[in-house]
Design brief:
It is a single chain. By secondary structure, the chain is α/β, with parallel strands linked by helices. The protein has twelve helices and 15 strands. Strands 4-3-5-6-7-12 form a six-stranded parallel sheet, with helices on both faces. The chain has a five-stranded mixed sheet with strand order 8-9-10-11-13, sandwiched between helices.
Length: 378
């Protein structure tokens, strides 16, 4: 292989050879350029190496990317003298103080460091300000105006900012969603098997003897939650158990005033056939439910067993739950960033949804055991 220095990194030597090929006229201005896959096959290198070589040539203005078409040799006017676009990725999330979101960001950042990309991080929620479509819109506009290489987005609840997401796609800015996908706009997304979470945790509770399970939610207008509810209902059906609209209603619990939460639980617990278990959306809901149950004079797990549909929360609640799903948070960020890098390098196949498996932890496997009772937690 022709190179620009025997000790140079492999991607630098590939860049030098590709740059020389363009200079020799092997690729005409405006013509399609060698793809990431072809680079891997030609040089016997990894996807990461191929992506980095192509990204650098785009940053230098030798190549351009055109959405839905691939990577092309830049026309002469497009090659700006001495001015390269910012090689940066925007990572837009909400709820950064939580371990789940922080680990997603850590995964994104690790791949950015590997590829020599900067990461601009925006948390659309602060301790004193809830995440909102308006804050997300501002972050998206700032990212696009900054000329980022791509955007990793942990979207706010609901179908908001459709016009901005479509604009990013029109500009050729790769976009990968994490944790949930959009049903109105086809994009790449990295999610977990949320149907399996709802199904497996419900099966565990049923096998433990629970036939009446109330579901407690936080967000409701997101695909991750809707898929979990579908899995929960499927497990009830297979077990021949009744599906109570009161217990399976997709309504917010966390975020409600304390009086409203207590009223919801009191109504369920005072029904003719009260629930013996609560399937909670995440660790934050587990903590709120345990507190509210104790306020109503119930013990956990004596009167009501708790289960967590993921381990996102303020602290480790495994000892308080009968069963909890463990999210591969960092892997979600790593996978999302690698997919974004492939798009930035010219991958033009249709939108991909990557579904990662989850782990399930039971109380039997926990090192400690918590019991919530009136007067405190012991």
């Amino acid at each position: 292989m022709a190179g620009d220095g025997r000790g140079a990194p492999l991607y630098q030597r590939i860049k030098a050879e590709l740059r020389a090929a363009v200079a020799r006229g092997e690729y005409e201005p405006g013509s399609p350029f060698v793809t990431q896959r072809e680079l891997c096959e030609r040089y016997g290198v990894s996807t990461t190496t191929a992506v980095k070589a192509l990204n650098d040539l785009v940053a230098e203005g030798l190549l351009v990317r055109r959405q839905g078409r691939g990577t092309f040799v830049a026309d002469q006017p497009e090659r700006t003298a001495g001015v390269a676009p910012v090689r940066a990725v925007a990572c837009i999330v909400h709820g950064l103080p939580g371990a789940h979101v922080s680990n997603v960001v850590s995964g994104v950042e690790s791949v950015c460091a590997e590829l020599g990309l900067r990461m601009y991080l925006t948390d659309t929620a602060r301790p004193d300000v809830l995440a909102s479509p308006e804050r997300e819109a501002g972050a998206l506009r700032e990212a696009m105006d900054s000329g980022v290489t791509g955007i990793v987005l942990y979207p706010v609840e609901g179908l908001h900012n459709s016009a901005l997401l479509s604009e990013a796609q029109r500009r050729g800015i790769p976009l990968v969603l994490v944790d949930r996908y959009r049903t109105d706009i086809p994009t790449d997304a990295v999610v977990v098997d949320n149907f399996a979470i709802g199904y497996q945790l419900t099966r565990h509770l049923i096998d433990a003897g629970h036939e009446r399970i109330v579901t407690l939610w936080s967000e409701t207008q997101v695909t991750s939650v809707q898929d979990r509810l579908t899995g929960h209902v499927q497990a009830l059906r297979e077990a021949g158990l009744p599906i109570s609209p009161q217990f399976t209603a997709l309504r917010p619990y966390l975020g409600q005033p304390a009086a409203a939460r207590l009223g919801l639980l009191r109504t369920a617990l005072e029904s003719a056939e009260p629930p013996t278990a609560a399937l909670c959306a995440n660790g934050y809901v587990v903590a709120a439910a345990a507190k509210d149950l104790v306020a109503l004079g119930r013990t956990v797990p004596g009167d009501v067993e708790l289960a967590g549909m993921d381990d996102a929360g303020p602290f480790d609640l495994l000892g308080l739950t009968a069963v909890t799903a463990e999210l591969p948070s960092r892997e979600m960020g790593v996978t999302a960033m690698r997919l974004l890098a492939e798009r930035a390098a010219g991958a033009t196949d249709g939108p991909r949804h990557v579904t990662l498996p989850t782990g399930v932890h039971t109380r039997d496997a926990a090192s400690g055991y918590l019991r919530a009772v009136v007067g405190g937690t012991a």
